[in-house]
Amino acid sequence: MNFVSIRIITGDVARLVDFYERATEVSATWANEDFAELRTPQATLAIGSTRTVPLFAPGSARPADNHSVILEFLVDDVDSVYKNLSSFVEDFVNEPTTMPWGNRALLFRDPDGNLVNFFTPVTPAAVEKFAR
């Protein structure tokens, strides 16, 4: 089995896609106005409209209502990324902080309130764990 993507359901696909394109510097591939994907070498972030929810099961997902999942992105230099994000991210939960497990991490919220973590391994053990 391979974990290949995560999907965010939103009431405004264009706004969320624009945010993630700016934050990740990855261009989205649009299937239609209700669905787009940002593909990275390891996984895909899919963004779907509330209009797609009934295709799976009516009422099974609600936009802007996540209180348990953190989207995590490995970046080369979290401190540099923080400077770039400062021009458009409105809700930083913390500034870059070195965590006990060896990652320097930055936590913020996307326009729908989803938590996003950009991190860079900084200790030898963390660097080894994420070696490409």
* Distance between the amino and carboxyl termini: 20 Å
Instruction: Let me know the number of strands.
Output: 8
Report the radius of gyration as a whole number of Å: 15 Å
* Largest sheet features: 4 strands, mixed
Count of DSSP H/I helices: 4
Helix content: 10-25%
- Which structural class should the secondary elements be placed in? alpha/beta
| Overall body shape | globular
* Order of H and E elements: EHEEEHEHEEEH
**Proportion of residues in β-strands:** 35-45%
The overall average pLDDT, rounded, is: 97
Strand order of the largest sheet: 1-4-3-2
Topology diagram in text:
Elements: E1 5-10, H1 13-24, E2 29-32, E3 35-39, E4 44-49, H2 53-56, E5 70-74, H3 78-85, E6 91-98, E7 103-109, E8 115-121, H4 124-129
Throw out a few tags for this protein.
132 residues, alpha/beta, 4-stranded mixed β-sheet, 4 helices, 36% strand
Question: How would you portray this structure in words?
Answer:
This protein is an alpha/beta fold. 23% of the residues lie in helices and 36% in strands. The protein starts with a strand and ends with a helix.
